[in-house]
Design brief:
Length: 363
């Protein structure tokens, strides 16, 4: 008797979150379902209702033991977006979104900037070859550590202190990840960006680590730009970039600029990684509350996040098919209004899922 090989299920936690996070995640899951069925993948998923509604109702953002559950019992996490006007201090978003990044130690925030169609680029004369680079954003320290405080709060003499933390271990590992990626993926250049001309302690550590790590990758060209010059060059000459590595806050800012180069936040996807551990995938955009529930949000960023998730789980063919479906939908103008189309969120999701379901084997 021959048994079919038993594959261990790969469990994926789905956290739609708030606002349009819910809308786009529903479409991303349709595409995940289509890919799972088309390639008979051993993927199972479970939706976790960690969001603003639940937080406002119960006062709890992450259930007791929730992060450990993600870490120990799931292969990957898909997040929609967090942010709700009823929670102005973003407490639940900090606990859930930053909590996932920090508590699972997902130190690499990998954000590709890739133009799928020339027509989506706001720059004159740039081609899909010109806009094709990746940003390695440090994801566990920098300005995001929440170290600081207020003195004489709400008085005329108020003082607010907000510290940036940079550790040698933290800086070195993200720089090493960027160079390692360049080496494995045939990228020629790594550009580190900081503001070390002003931040003489924290960002000077980045300078020293960069020089040291670059020495281990002699075949990769290492260069540096202060972040103000980086933003200028991203617009002026995006073709000069292969891999950019930078701190948490600068990485946040430059990847929204990068998103604009590829057609807007509606198409920008990201992966939050720690090799060998449970990783998290999410669109770069937020919860855009004014568009929530209106069938207008672009689901492509969430769908491309699913492609990255599939690739991460070892399903390269399914991942390429999802990416190809996105390319086709853009070429054929089956897009939401942000990309110039007339389709709704669900129509785009259905179309992408149908393309994936019908994908032919490669080769
Ligand atoms: P946002 O990304 O939610 O939206 C900014 C604008 O970008 C929108 O008004 C819209 O014009 C466009 N946009 C974004 N996503 C789109 C999509 N899928 N389709 C079409 N258009 C899209 O940023 P914001 O308005 O600054 O923030 C709203 C809330 O989201 C805030 O609470 C913020 O803190 C939060 N936020 C969360 C995340 C996240 O969960 N990762 C990221 C950014 C912002
Ligand atoms: C992002 C977002 C988050 C960040 C916010 C919502 C905390 O802007 O993922 O880019 O700053 O990292
Ligand atoms: Mn951001």
């Amino acid at each position: 008797m021959t048994d079919a090989p038993t594959q261990r299920p790969q469990r994926v936690a789905i956290l739609p979150g708030d606002g349009i996070g819910v809308d786009v995640t529903a479409e991303a899951v349709k595409v995940l379902a289509a890919a799972t069925e088309r390639w008979r993948l051993p993927i199972e998923w479970l939706e976790l209702p960690w969001n603003a509604d639940r937080y406002l109702e119960t006062g709890e953002s992450v259930p007791e033991g929730g992060m450990e559950d993600l870490r120990d019992n799931y292969a990957a996490i898909l997040i929609g977006a967090y942010g709700d006007p009823r929670v102005p201090d973003m407490k639940h978003a900090a606990d859930i979104l930053l909590g996932t990044r920090f508590e699972l130690d997902l130190f690499i925030n990998f954000r590709p900037i890739k133009l799928y169609d020339e027509r989506l680029c706001p720059l004159k004369g740039k081609t899909i070859e010109d806009i094709d680079f990746v940003v390695f954003r440090e994801n566990t320290e920098g300005a995001y550590v929440g170290v600081g405080g207020n003195f004489k709060r709400d008085t005329g003499d108020e003082v607010a202190v907000q510290e940036e933390i940079h550790t040698r271990k933290g800086v070195e590992r993200i720089i090493r990840a960027a160079f390692g990626y360049a080496r494995v993926n045939g990228r020629k250049r790594v550009c580190m960006s900081d503001k070390s001309n002003v931040m003489r302690f924290g960002h000077d550590l980045w300078q020293r680590c960069f020089e040291e790590v670059a020495g281990d990758y002699p075949e990769i060209e290492a260069n540096h730009l202060f972040v103000d010059a980086l933003t200028m060059q991203m617009v002026r000459k995006p073709e000069m970039f292969d891999v950019i590595v930078t701190n948490n806050m600068f990485g946040d800012i430059v990847t929204d600029l990068g998103a604009a180069l590829q057609g807007g936040l509606g198409v920008a996807a990201s992966a939050n990684l720690h090799p060998g551990r449970t990783s998290m995938f999410e669109p770069v955009h937020g919860s855009a509350p004014k568009y929530a529930g209106k069938d207008v949000a672009n689901p492509v960023a969430a769908v491309l996040s699913v492609a990255m998730l599939l690739e991460h789980l070892g399903h390269a063919e399914a991942a390429s098919a999802v990416e190809e479906a996105v390319s086709v939908s853009i070429r054929k103008d089956v897009t939401t209004a942000d990309l110039g189309g007339t389709a709704g969120t669900t129509q785009v999701g259905d179309y992408l899922a149908s393309l994936v379901a019908a994908a032919q084997p490669v080769g």
